[in-house]
Model the fold of this input.
Amino acid sequence: MGLVLRELRILLRSPAETVQSLMFGVLVVALFPLAITPDPEILRQLAVGLIWVVTLLTSLLAAERSLVGDFEDGTLEQMVLGIQPLWLICLIKSAGHWLSALLPLLLITPLLGLMLAMTPSAILWLLASLLLGTPILSLFCILGGMMTLGLNRGGALMLVILMPFLVPPLILGTQWAMTEGQAFYGYLLAGLLSLSLMTLPIATATVARIVVSR
Amino acid sequence: MVWRWFHEWGSPRFFYARSGRLIPIFAALTLCLLSIGLVWGLLYAPADYQQGHSYRIMYVHVPAAILAQSSYAMMAMAAVVSLIWRLKIADAAMQTAAPIGAWVTALALVTGALWGKPMWGTYWVWDARLTSTLILLFLFAGVLAIRQASGPGQSAGRAAAVLAVVGLINLPIIKFSVDWWFTLHQPSSFSITEKPAMPIEMWAPLLVMVIGTYSWFFLVWLMRLRLEIVRREAKADWVQRSFQDEL
Done:
C-alpha cells in the first residue's frame, strides 16, 4: 500500500512528465491533418488507428522514465532485496506508468477524436478500446523498460524488443473500436489483458533480479 | 538415467567431444538431401498447370518458412532450459540459434516476395501469414538486439532468455490476432493429418527439401555452438589441451 502511495506521490510531484505525454499526443495528432489532408471524411477513417498508434508511442516513451529514477538511486535494488513480493512491485510500477502517461491521454482522447472529425459514438468506442487495451501496453512497456535499464541506446532498443508484443493489443483494440464494439474483439482484448496481468509482472520481476545482479 | 544423460550433455567438455562425431553425419545428410531435393524439385518435378515454372521457388520458400517457426521454438526451448537449470550449454545454444533463425526467416520473406510478384502481382501484401512472419523476424531481432546491447556474460543471456520465453507464449496470440485480415495466402502445403493437395511428384521433392533444411539447420547450429563453447571455455584445461598443437 505504501508503494502505491509512493508511486502516486512521485506522479503528483512531477507533473511536467505527465504534461509532456499529453503535449506529445496532441502535437502528433495535430500533425496528421497537416501531413495527410484536412478532409474530414478521410480523417474519420484513419482516426482510430492514428490515435492508437500515438497512444502506443506515448506509452513507449514514458516507460524508461518511470523506471530510470528508481534504478539510478538504488531504490530498485532495495525493492529486489525487500520483503514485498517483487511481482507486486512490478505490477504497481505498471499501474504507475499507466496513471502517469496513459490516463491523461485517455482523458483528452475525446478532444483528439474531435480534431480528427470522429463522431461521438466512434469516440466512445475508441475510449472503451483504449481503456481495455492501454493497461496491456503499460505491462509490456514496464517489462521492456526493465530489460533495457542501464544499457546504451535503451530507448531504441526497447522499440525493437517490444514491437512484436504490442501488435496483438493494437490489432484487437483498433478492430474493436472500428467495428463499434463487436463483442468478439472485446472478449479477446479482455482475455489478453487478464493473461498479461497474470504473467507479465512475474516476467518483469525475473528481469528486475537480472538487472540488479548485472 | 535421463538425469545422467542430461548432466553429461550439459557439460561443455562432454558435449564438445560427442557433438564432434555428429557433424559428419549431419553434413552428409544435408549434402545428400539438399542436392537431391534441389535437382529433383527444380529440374524433374512437373510444371504446375496454373503457375508454370515459377512455382518452383516453393522448394526453397516452404522449407524456409517451416524452419523459421521451428527455429524460434527451438531457441525458446533452449531459453527455458537455461532459465530453469542454468545450463551453460543451453544459454550458448540459444545465443547461436538466434542469428540462424533470423536469417532463415528473412529468407522465407524474400523468397515469398519473389514468388508473390508473378503470382499476386505484388511483392508485399499485408496478408496474415506474411505479417506474422515479419513479426517473427522482429522477435528474433529483439532477442539479438538485447544480447548485443548487454554484452557478454551470464546476465545478458538471461535477459534475452526471458524475452524469448515471453515471445514463445505470445507467438500463438500474435498469429491469431494477425489472422483477422482477409487472407490471400494459399493454405499450408503440408499437414500431418490430411492428404496433400499436390500430386506426389511435386510434394515428394518438397518433403526431401524440408528434411534437408532441418538437417542443415542442425549442422550449422552444432558448428556454431561448438565454436561458442570453445570461445567461452577458452581458459579451461580441456580446451587448452585439445588445441595445444595449433597454438
Q: What stands out?
A: Chain B has a mean pLDDT of 84. The two ends of chain B are 38 Å apart (CA to CA). Residues 22-46+54-183+201-246 of chain B form one domain. The interface with chain A takes residues 83, 135-136, 138-139, 141-142, 145-146, 149-150, 153, 155, 158-159, 162-163, 165-167, 169-170, 173-174, 177-178, 180 of chain B (CB under 8 Å).
